[in-house]
Amino acid sequence: VVLGKLAPVTLASVAFSFNSHENSWFKSLFVRKVDPRKDTHANLLTKNEESNLYKIQFHNVKPECLDAYNKLCEDVLPSIHADKYYPCELVGTWNTWYGEQDQAVHLWRYRGGYPALTEVMNKLKQNQEFTAYRKERGKMLMSRRNQLLLEFSFWNEPVPREGPNIYELRSYQLRPGTMIEWGNYWARAIRYRQHNREAVGGFFSQIGNLYMVHHLWAYKDLQSREDTRNGAWQQEGWDEVVYYTVPLIQHMDSRIMIPTKASPLK
What we know:
- An eight-stranded antiparallel beta barrel has the order 1-3-2-8-5-7-6-4.
- The longest helix is centred in the N-terminal third of the chain and has 17 residues, at 66-82.
- The chain has eight helices and eight strands; from the N terminus they run H-H-E-H-E-E-H-H-E-E-H-E-E-H-H-E.
- It is of the alpha+beta class.
- Helices cover 31% and strands 29% of the residues.
């Protein structure tokens, strides 16, 4: 059988062939078989030469406090980002425009992995300005949650970019046991989404909600988003990505986000 172009690289070659239109059902019998691995998803899917850890924070802010919250973050977060004493970087900070309302999203990078995260946490405990920030911030929040993430090896590393842009955070809750398959497909599929520099970063969770994937995209505006996404469907092979990855998803969510003044991703 000649398998689809996006079948996982771990499938064994099969000697027979059928017309591609007549044997699509047959291909689907094999497409999700992945050879057993004796390693963690993290080691198989990340950039092994790097040890970047990411933290994403979701803060649900009292509606009447959003402007004050943004101002507070603008006064404190950039100083941490710029201070080499802390081995961390503020990748981006946004307010949700469409999706959950009155929500702030922050994405941090820790170069050095978990030891860097621990170092930053310990140092911030001694930072009186940050302690005051957390106390004041607590008065403005209704709830908050976070996740620790690793980046997919085949995605771009997020770097500062000029604006103005809007950002879309697409979050996918995968079925347990399907992360390798997702990585197999998207390692090929990402090339379909690079033409307008819309791909910002791709991540998967290590702590928090597990089997969670986040794809971060940048667009000039909502119409640009529509045109770019429609354009992907004109490229041969994109339909296969969608066909084979949709069954891996339990739940998906989309946020359209606006960068705040403090965000390196403008």
